[in-house]
Amino acid sequence: MSRTGIVVVTYNSGDVIGACLDSCKGLPVVVVDNASSDSTCQEVRRRAGVTLIANAANGGFAAAVNQGVARIDTDLILLLNPDTRLESAIDALESACLENGAGVAAGLLRDSDGCAQAGFALRRYPTAATLALEVLGLNRVAPWNPWNRRYRCLDVDLSEPGVCEQPAGAFLMFRRDVWQRLGGFDTQFDPVWFEDVDFCKRAHDLGVKIQYVPEVTARHQGGHSIAKMDWGSRELCWYVSLLKYAYKHFRPYSCRGVSAAVVVGSLFRATIGLIRLRSVRPIKVYARVAGIAMRGFFVGRVGQLKCCVV
Predict the structure, then answer these.
(1) What is the phi/psi pair of residue 104, to 5°?
(2) Domain end (from 220, 244, 271)
(3) DSSP label of 304
C-alpha cells in the first residue's frame, strides 16, 4: 500500500488534468471537482484507479482539499494543482516529510521551459509591510525592493535543499496528523487564495518544520483555473482573502495599515482601469474592495463573503 495519496482540486481543468493524472500513475489519486462545466470529469473518469468527487457547486479550494484528504486513506498527502505534472519520484519528499520534527514538504516547481519558478515556488510569510506594498502596486513597479525580495525568496538559491517557510500549494506534501491537528485547510478563504499560506503558517506556529527538497520536481503551468474566473470576481476574491489573512495573523494596528493600503491602492487601480478600459466597471469593482477594507479598518474584522461577479 502506498504511503502517499494525491489530492487534486479541479475547476474547468479539462485541457490539463489528463497530463497531471498520467504523471501520478502508481499512486492513489482523488480528484475533487468544483462544478466544472467543461470536460474535466470525463477526462478523470477515463483514468482507471482515480477516485472522482464531483461537487454540484463550487465550495472553494480549501473545502475541496479537505474533502479529498478525508476520502483518501494514506499517512501522507500530496496536494497537486491540475496544471502540474510530476517529473520525478517522490521518495525524497516522503522522507523529508517524515523526518523528526517535520510534517510538511515541497519540491521544486519548474515552468514550461524547465526554469525554476522563482518568486512563486517558495516564499516567506507575508508581513503587513509586504502586503501593503503588494496592494499599492509597489512590488510590481520596484520588484527589487528589499521587502519584495525577501517575501518572494529572490535571495534564495532554489537548487539548495533546506527548511523553508511557505512553499506553493500547487505542489505540497503534508502528513495527515498535521492536517488533523490544524483542523484541515481554513474554508474562510473562499473560493481561493491564501489558504495554503495560512496552512503553512499555522503548521509553523505548531512547531512543524517545513522542508524544501529540490531534487523532486514538477512542471507547473500556473494560473490555469484562476484564468477562467471573471476579472472582477478574481480581483475581489484576491483582496478579500488577503485581508482575511491579515486579520487572522497580524496585530490590530498592522491589519488597519493593510486595510488603509488596500483603500489607497483601490483608488489608483480604479483610476487606471477607467482610463485604460474606458469603462466604469473598474470603479465598481474597486469601490467594493475599498468598502470591505474600510469595514475591516473600523470593525476590526473581514466577514465571510462569497465572491461573485461584480
Answers:
(1) -140, 140
(2) 220
(3) -
